[in-house]
Amino acid sequence: MIRIFSRVRDSRFALWLAAAFTAVTFFACFVPALSAQESGKPPHTGIQTTAEIVKIDCSVLDHTTNFVGGLTQDRFVVSDNGIAQPILFFAPVEAPAQVLVMIETSPAVYLIRAEHLTAAHALLEGLAPDDELALVSYSQAPQAILPFTTDKVGLAAALGEIQFTLGMGNLNLFDSVSMVLDWISPLQGKKAIVLLSTGLDSSPPERWDALTQKLKRDDAVIFTVALGGSLRQTSSKKKKPAKAAPKTDDSAEPANPVSFAKADAALKTLAKITGGRAYFPESPGDFVPIYREIAAVLRHQYMLGIAPQHDGTFHSLTVHVDAGEKSKKPSAKSADYQIFAREGYLAPAR
What we know:
There is one protein chain. By secondary structure, the protein is of the alpha/beta class. It contains eight helices and 14 strands. The strands form three sheets. The chain has a six-stranded mixed β-sheet, with helices on both faces. A four-stranded antiparallel β-sheet has the order 4-11-1-13. Helix 2 packs antiparallel against helix 3, helix 2 packs across helix 8 (about 285-300) and helix 4 runs parallel beside helix 5. The longest helix is centred in the N-terminal third of the chain and has 24 residues, at about 10-35. The protein is globular and about 55 Å long. It starts with 11 loop residues before the first helix and ends with a strand.
């Protein structure tokens, strides 16, 4: 049985100091890596709101998880709060990605630590040679292990040195993700977090609320890969299969006591808000196709731009791809397409 112990209030200050020290250490090795980046790299392409345009990074995959190239602007339909908007800017983008691999190392996953390593090595094999990766572990707080690098061999070696926490302890997924978002916020270009996690967290509900609000303002994409597949399978067999997709909006906030049902909802929501995807592998063989799909999404994108509203509220975004046949309605979309785009944006105030 996995037991996650509740937060001990008296230890919060000590944890905060440790996390702050880790952040400073991470930036000490992180900033030189940033300065070494080539000046010719593509400009920042994450979603941004200004008085003129909302930029949306969008990836389109077919039923075999291959990138769908050659789409033209007239094939896309972007809706803001359900209302189709004129696309003011359009460009296909193919550029290296910056991927931060974030691995849970809590007592909850010590017995399935081999599953962590299998997953992470599959990711290295799926990414392109010029994609940059960084490595961070987390339990009570995030711990920087390796700054962004194209050295996949060095990253593989660092994976083998990851230390797992034993005994009682807090599991602070939400605060850890929030801090990592702050660490990578200075990065330009395409950036993503691949989160290998059970999704369990012992934080109070307000920590979840704070994270989801930050994600609505941020431009990093999060792909969540659930660990503990055998445990999740056992849990799911006790339930009747649901026909409808589970609710993944902010109202589905995780709360104590921790459970895999709440963890699943959290992982799905983290991915959905940011335009990523949540994966729930059931066996080691599932990881390879998962990471091939993640690599395809990160590598190839279309950049779309629409005019923002000016009401200071959060607006939902949906991106459809026209089926391409004149006989069909413009809103029709191909059932074979998987579309990855952010859930929405915070509109500027008037």
